[in-house]
Amino acid sequence: MTKSVRQKLAVTSVAATGALLLAGCLQSPGSGSDRGSGADNAQTDGDGVVTILGAFGGAEAEAFNESLVQFEEDTGIDVQYSSDQDFTNTVRARAGSGQAPDIAIFPQPGGLIEQADAGNVEPIHFYLDVPALEESLVPGFLDASEASNGLPYGAPMRMAVKSLVWYPQEAYADGGYNTEPDTLEDLAAIQEEISADGMAPWCMGWNSDQATGWVGTDWIEEYMLRLHGPEVYDEWTSHEIPFDDPRVVEAFDAYGELVFAEGNVLGGTSNVIATPFSEAILPAFEDPPECLMERQGNFITGFMPSDVQENLDNEVGLFVFPRAGSGDYTDQPILGGGDLAALMNGNDPDSIEVMRFLTSPEFGGPWAQAGGWLSPHATFDASQYPDELTRRTAEIVADADVFRFDGSDLMPNAVGGGTFWTGMVDWLNGKPAEEVTADIEASWPADGEEDS
């Protein structure tokens, strides 16, 4: 959490404490005058039933519910989870009609901040121990849930990691390539070695039907974080600096040195656009491999060949996308995402108790064992993960200096889910970075203009 947020929390806490002392009693967080914005819904308080709305379903919903079984037995609280694929619109409609769930799990920060600014979500410092939360969470995770007043309104209960480079273990080991590059310069040296051995260093695919280009936005976000650090990154994603700021162009240029270099990417840039992101890693597992590395999120293991998935620990290696070795920022950042739990019924002590469990390092054991889930807490018991590859991913994040949410998810949808995607395709097809970033800047919704 930023220094300014800590200061605001301190001022709020002092004011709240003073009011309570004047009232002659100290109450537990989430009760009476210790409440914050007054977020409420039409459901009965204290009835032992807590409703949760989220976007994930299927096996993920089953694993989520399984992770609550012991809690429900211990507390007697009945947690009722509902999945909605149109979550953003559903939670907006339900909140607007007074029918909000007790707890909502937001897959992107933008929807949470919208509801927080509308007064439909309780600030977390009224019922969670924020300093303790900061101690256990990956640094920087709470920043994504800050509303316009600078206070956080949600806490993560699941994490996704993007800053990972994957490779086939056997072929990579046979080449003797560095498995722990520390800087971008080290990574460039690996590229040169692989190229000299007659292979394309990078596997890459951007095709995603109407969403083609999102993979490219991740690359720019990685370079923005590494070259300029989290503060400039935050200014960029919040539009405190324009999209066509020279530092953004610098990030495009840095990525351009990788993606436009002859032979560096399998099939060249035309193949990048034509290749589905879900198939980009497959050539790495051919015999012999056609490319060796892919920078992609932790979900990518689910798209690897079935025989590889059955033996991930022996077939697949990974390392963190490395930091910049020089410049204004040289710490190791992590780009990712996550699901943020938010309290929409500040009057209900049962909902508060559920929130405290959902956002704690103790939540998620059964989900972790089932696979496909990562705790946002560096203090989570990593022995509960099903394989060494997942444990290694968790270790990489725990060792990082700062975590930042996917930038396109933080931007207005017209940009982050629109012109940024299409602009990346234009750039890969040869349009200059200065023109692409200027076009995206021109598409940014004006203050007060409704985002599409």
Automatic annotation (TrEMBL):
Residues 1-23 form the signal peptide. The keyword Secreted does not apply. Keywords: Signal, Transport. The keyword Signal applies. It comes from the Bacteria. PROSITE patterns: PROKAR_LIPOPROTEIN (PS51257). Belongs to the bacterial solute-binding protein 1 family. This is Alpha-glucoside transport system substrate-binding protein. It comes from Ruania alba.
